[in-house]
Hints:
By secondary structure, the protein is mostly helical. The protein contains 13 helices and five strands.
Amino acid sequence: MRILSGLQPSGRLHIGNYFGMMDAALRLQHEGDAYYFIADYHSLTSIQDGKLLRSHVRDLAIDFLACGLDPEKCVFFRQSDVPEHTELAWILSTVTPMGLLERCHSYKDKVARGLVASHGLFAYPVLMAADILIYDSDVVPVGKDQKQHVEVTRDLAIKMNETFGEGLLKVPQPRIREETAVIPGLDGQKMSKSYDNTLQLFEEPADLKKKIMKKLVTDSTALELPKPIEGSTILPLYKLVASEADYNAMIEDHLRGGIGYGDFKKRLLESITTYFAPMRERRAEILAKPGYVERVLAEGAEKARAVARQTLTRVRSAVGLGD
Ligand code: ADP
Ligand code: TRP
């Protein structure tokens, strides 16, 4: 089974990214042949500052490795080191109906949030399809908001196969963990860097504390009264990082009353800190090894490129490019 996923280097990793996508992807690396990459071509649709993009790529690579990506087990690379993706994207774009892209929510949402309505942003799902199809991927672990893009990918693979020959491209499946489909942020809506409501994975401890104690929104139920479970901002986050027993205890404490939100927030802070402590340590170790990240990415690019070239050769031959 070939597994593939990518993350855009468009800011520091947050808990939504981790539980929405990365955690599942990291578990899957032990179950098959995994390809994970940093989608820097995609990030050009939102970051147009070369220095900043390069520093985000490096940070994300370090974070991925700190979170447990094992470069011995999977192929880890930077998208732009495999320019074959863009050639396949062009070929796919010639069978992509405009209507298919016009229906994509992500484009409309991003424009509504102020991103420039560029051709790149509009064509983004076609590049994503190329990323997936060029590795003959079977399974694509992503967050719920990317499901539609994997459906576009499936449509394009089917269309290519109908047009140029059955079996040309493998039709992939999305893998979405429903229980962690949408992680809420500090204000209760979806955690996202564009809403400025994130808890970053490797946040400075003092900032993490400040965000949880001061910015995490709660209602004004009096201390002695029972607290509502429904709509809680604390409980869904706590569930991700606490043991089952601690989570159940917090539910009971909500129902009983007599405990304030400040206390629940302290428990949340402690559990988040403990949960991510080993990754924080690993991050420091990686930072102490000069050249390590660059070496991993260079080796990954070489392996990825060998596979991507084979698929592209097959596709070029089927569509009539080259000899
Ligand atoms: P952001 O919304 O902060 O810009 P991205 O769109 O870059 O995050 O998301 C990267 C990956 O993380 C995607 O697979 C996405 O589905 C997942 N993801 C992001 N935010 C969340 C969230 N709040 N809950 C679940 N998954 C998320
Ligand atoms: N669009 C994805 C996101 O914003 C990133 C991505 C690019 C991706 N190419 C991909 C994810 C291929 C999975 C497979 O999160």
